[in-house]
Amino acid sequence: MKARLTSLAVIATSLLGNGLLSMEARCQAPFSEATDKSTVKIEAVEYLFPEQVTISAGKTSPVALHFRIAPGLHINSHAPKDEYLIPTVFSIPEDSGVKLENATYPAGVEFVLPADPGTKLSVYTGEFTIQGRLVAEAGDHLVKAKLRYQACDLTACMPPKTITVPIDIVGK
């Protein structure tokens, strides 16, 4: 097992060094024919909706949170197959007036690394939905929830990232 992990670490380190350079190159895009190339910020994961939800104050309520992963990328599922892989996790700050009772994540799809066909990963691609169960205090709460993930393409993984998931939650 240790030999396999060491082998994977060597492959990953090699691919990471090469992959980040190619990922930076793909993020270069011209704004127009007349200007020099400028770096365009491309998010690996985009929060789609809801922007606002109204729930019963003090009662657990379901809220479906929708996300989209950029084409050509995947992220580890909430339950990756190996402990060294970074899971996708949704969270809400404790001082927001809203509590995340629990979150149900979709099942990941099986993905095989081209560099190591013996390794199978559990990932999300395209669009996915996290089913949250929230409890809100009475009032209007602009919650800056978080989604932590690690995005990868076929050859390399980017550093882990946390994005803000803004949700206006009204507890009535």
Beta fraction: over 45%
Number of individual domains: 1
Number of strands: 14
The CATH architecture can be named as Sandwich
Largest sheet: 4 strands, antiparallel
Question: Between the first and last Cα atoms, what is the distance in angstroms?
Answer: 53 Å
- The name CATH uses for the topology is Immunoglobulin-like
Number of alpha- plus pi-helical segments: 1
| Cα-based radius of gyration, to the nearest Å | 19 Å
Helices and strands: which structural class?
mainly beta
Task: Describe this structure as you would to a colleague.
- The protein is mainly beta.
- It has a single domain (43-171), classed as Immunoglobulin-like.
- The chain has one helix and 14 strands.
- The strands form four sheets. It has a four-stranded antiparallel beta sheet, with no helix packed on it. It has a four-stranded mixed beta sheet with strand order 4-14-12-7, with no helix packed on it. It has a four-stranded antiparallel beta sheet with strand order 9-10-6-13, with no helix packed on it.
- It is elongated and about 50 Å long.
- The chain starts with a helix and ends with a strand.
- The model is unreliable at 1-37 (pLDDT under 50).
